Amino acid sequence: MRMAQPGQGEVQDDVAEDGLAPPRRYFAWATVILGVTLAVLDGTIANVALPTIAQDFQADASVSIWIVNGYQLAIVMALLPLATLGEKIGYRRIYLWGIALFTVASVGCVMSTSLTSLTTARIVQGLGAAGLMSVNTAVLRYIVPQSRFGAALGFNALAVAAAATAGPAIAGFALAVLSWQWLFAINIPLGILTVALGWRSLPESDRSGRRFDSFAAVMSAVSIGLVITTIDSLGHDLPWYLVLLQAVACVVGFALLIRHERRVDRPMLPLDLFRIPIFSLSVAASISAFTAQILAFVSLPFAFQVAMGFPPAQVGLLMMPWPLALAVVAPLAGRLSDSRSPALLGTGGMVLLAVGLLLLGLLPADPGFWNIAWRMVLCGIGFGLFQTPNNRTMIGSAPKPRSGAASGVLGTARLTGQSIGAALVALLLAQLGIGGATWSLFLGAGFAALAGVLSILRVDHWQPPHPQAAGSSALR
């Protein structure tokens, strides 16, 4: 048992020192996997349903896209504030509140009678998703032993890849026989199940006694939100003065935030963690890798359907080998990262991804299915070798009480990379037409190579775990 530290205000009687004992560990782990699966499924399903929803509400596509954009923006703006709040009141509480809010907002989505009400419900849903995504890796650190943390992250990556693969197929089938409201109704029983499991199984965590910094929360949310909207504006060819205005506001916001955060011991924008070289390098590598991934994921459907002439039904099949290969490799990479250098695993993965993207960009005008499939598999293997070891390094290099801040940065890095990649594809397509899809793949190869360089720079910061120190961190 651990008593609360002065200023915490309550007793914590089940803080997990090095993971939970079975069978509670498995129920808690299932809660985390269910939560992240819900968030990923909801995102992919909503993307597929957009045209149907826009038609139902007789709305323009440019307006209906906010059903997706509002959800993503709410997540990225709330990640760091909620991760920091989790350090104060407990990751368990933030996770359960997040799932509960996500579930209630899903009811709002089902009952929406206008595009405005649906978009509002989706923004609230994004806030709920931010709750679970901001602390999911942090709470996992209290569920499994440190010696199995990499493997646990690998299985989480498997769940994400499986959800990303299954989401479009589930949405396509459901929309063929049901209304779009049923896509959001799926979340309700799964959300209730997740809350029930988590209520009984999720552990308490270390807590800080410091007050929640409201000014930093608002400034970080606004500044990070402006990063995303500025990048998105570049991709959508907005007037230059609007883009410049957003960029200036973003720089000013970050300047004020950093000035404020330098005065506190444990800042919301985790400047203390960025002073750890291996953490900073891992964050930069993550942004570069996810930029490369989204450059490919957004541009490939255009290349397959418009440039190569594949029908829409086959485009989905052509996209599947990548997440399937990722699902197979991620758990293995997670296990390897518990005993092998994540720097070497990540570098090798990014080399494979860069080669795979180059080969996809050099495809002939009329390639066969298998000619595409093995290249997609190569990319999936490469990304799988990088993602889990890199996530383990990011979380494991932070002090355990700062796991929430590290988890928030992990999610922010992923979403920032995805936003940069999507904006770059939009920019290239706008300037070069369908040829921009091919150049997106070449640019993605460049970002993958950059991620590989950043990854190998961490090699001197890792040491293999001592044989008599099971469960100790291998990161220095």
Automatic annotation (TrEMBL):
Question: Gene3D superfamilies attached here?
Answer: MFS general substrate transporter like domains, Multidrug resistance protein D
Q: Which SUPFAM superfamilies match?
A: MFS general substrate transporter
- Looking at the record, the residues that make up the Major facilitator superfamily (MFS) profile domain are 28-463
Q: How does it sit in the membrane?
A: Multi-pass membrane protein
TM annotation in the entry: 26-49, 61-82, 94-117, 123-143, 155-176, 182-202, 214-234, 240-258, 278-304, 316-336, 343-363, 369-386
Against PROSITE patterns, the record matches this protein to: MFS
Keywords (A to Z) from UniProt: Membrane, Transmembrane, Transmembrane helix, Transport
Q: Where in the cell is it found?
A: Membrane
Q: What is this protein called?
A: MFS transporter
Native organism is Acidimangrovimonas pyrenivorans
For this protein's source organism, the top of the classification is: Bacteria, Pseudomonadati, Pseudomonadota, Alphaproteobacteria, Rhodobacterales
